[in-house]
Amino acid sequence: MSDKKKINPLLKTGLELGPIVVFFVAYLKLREETFLIGGTDYAGFIVVTAGFIPLMILSTGILWKLTGHLSKMQVATLVLVVVFGGLSVWLNDDRFFKMKPTMIYLLFGGALGIGLIRGQSYLKFVMEEMMPLKEEGWMLLTKRLTAFFIGLAVLNEIIWRTQSTDTWVYFKTFGLTAAVFAFFMTQGGLLQKFALEEEKD
């Protein structure tokens, strides 16, 4: 197994968010277009999705090459992008790709929930190095994040089933990202309350 390597944070962020930004820009340019490929008409959304899949694979591969490590979350996200994006392109049906965030958040929320049932915080195993907390803090944060992920899954289902594709793309690109950022910003009190004090000599 490769050792983790440090890379420029801006480069790391670019590799993680770059494909999403490219998807958004490409969708804005091609959303009104229809492409005849192999005798079948494909909407711009499907064509952009087809381009997003290899771009996501490439960016994740570069990230792995540079860092020597991928988190379980990154691997799971890539797999779901390939599976649900591939189904959308293969069946020429955008609903599968729109369901992807639902599956991602249900997967993460379900995994954390299973840990809670077993009396464990799986979140601690993933983020302990970044946020050293007391056990009580990890359990509380995990409960909140589990509920948050389930809520995002439900919200994504409501948005894509009741709103236009334009609305869903804006929601996926900006709404979900802002929601995750806002969640962790609002946990400052918990992080301070349960933070482990550094041992002093």
Automatic annotation (TrEMBL):
Coiled-coil stretches? none
Q: What are the protein's UniProt keywords?
A: Cell inner membrane, Cell membrane, Membrane, Transmembrane, Transmembrane helix
Residue ranges crossing the lipid bilayer per the database entry: 12-30, 42-63, 75-91, 103-123, 144-162, 168-186
Compartment annotation: Cell inner membrane
Q: Which Pfam families match?
A: IspA
Q: Which named protein is this?
A: Inner membrane-spanning protein YciB
Q: What is its main location?
A: membrane
- Report the function annotation for this chain: Plays a role in cell envelope biogenesis, maintenance of cell envelope integrity and membrane homeostasis.
Organism's domain of life? Bacteria
**Do you know which PANTHER family this protein is assigned to?**
INNER MEMBRANE-SPANNING PROTEIN YCIB, INTRACELLULAR SEPTATION PROTEIN A-RELATED
Cellular component GO terms, alphabetically? Answer: plasma membrane
* Family, as annotated: Belongs to the YciB family.
Q: Does the keyword Acetylation apply?
A: no
